[in-house]
Specification:
The chain has eight helices and eight strands; from the N terminus they run βαβαβαβαββαβαβαα. The protein is of the alpha/beta class. An eight-stranded parallel sheet has the order 1-8-7-6-5-4-3-2. Helix 3 links the parallel strand 3 and strand 4. Helix 2 runs parallel beside helix 3 and helix 5 runs parallel beside helix 6. It binds 5-O-phosphono-D-xylulose (5SP). The site of 5-O-phosphono-D-xylulose has 23 residues, from strand 2, strand 3, strand 8 and helix 7.
């Protein structure tokens, strides 16, 4: 049984109004915030790091009436390097790229030891089968539906075969999709079995973010229900 989760990607937010915009999407029904950390090395872009995450944690504390899960997507080389910093800054989940380390299992252990949930991501060119040997050790698998590095790219529907395969083999796994998710692309992702939807541009740039969040979540709920996988909690 899995939960439907919408995780707006802050890369598409107005960084000058980050705290306010994040509170709006949380009030609009987002359970997670997707925090894109980019180092200009693993991906050709630089975004933000632990100081921004720490400020955001102050604005959205864990003891709030509606606590929000900080889903840190580490688009960085040497992901082991930032585990402690991100945990101290208030990260709840730490998702690193399979392609970024020679020792995924070692990295997984360090993330868990730092008290965070652990996710592992695959870029579009990486077969999802690489995750099979480590799947029992992780809390989330992230299937990238664009090349990591930039928001506002086009959703890659051919990645859905990866999601279908994962969902078939691992019914209880949190399967996240990231890149180009919007009202007009959610159907194939939800049908394939994704339950954690990252959406940047479509949520933060919407006139009514709540309406988009509701739509995306409705599609996931419908498909998880049809598969008999919807968690009641
Ligand atoms: O990790 C990334 C890009 O590298 C994503 O989180 C995007 O930032 C999602 O943005 P949209 O495609 O939804 O605008």
């Amino acid at each position: 049984m899995v939960k439907p989760i919408i995780a707006p990607s802050i890369l598409a937010s107005d960084f000058a109004n980050l705290g306010h915009q994040c509170k709006c999407v949380v009030d609009g029904g987002a359970e997670w915030l997707h925090l894109d950390v980019m180092d200009g090395h693993f991906v050709p872009n630089i975004s933000l790091g632990s100081p921004v995450i720490a400020s955001l944690r102050n604005a959205l504390p864990r003891n709030a009436e509606k606590p929000v899960f900080f889903d840190c997507h580490m688009m960085v080389s040497n992901p082991e390097q930032w585990i402690e910093d991100i945990a101290k800054a208030g990260g709840d989940g730490y998702t690193f790229h399979f392609e970024a380390t020679d020792d995924p299992l070692g990295c997984i252990k360090k993330v868990k030891a730092a008290g965070m949930k652990v996710g592992v991501s695959v870029k579009p060119g990486t077969p999802v089968e690489v995750l099979f040997p480590i799947i029992e050790e992780i809390d989330l698998a992230l299937v990238m539906t664009v090349e990591p590095g930039f928001g506002g790219q086009k959703f890659m529907p051919d990645m859905m075969s990866k999601v279908e395969l994962l969902r078939k083999k691992y019914p209880k796994l949190n399967i996240q999709v990231d890149g180009g998710l919007a009202k007009d692309t959610i159907a194939p992702a939800a049908e394939a079995g994704a339950n954690v939807i990252v959406a940047g541009t479509s949520v933060f740039r919407a006139e009514n973010p709540k309406e988009v969040i509701d739509y995306l979540k409705g599609s996931v709920v419908e498909n998880l229900t049809a598969k008999g996988l919807l968690s009641k909690v």
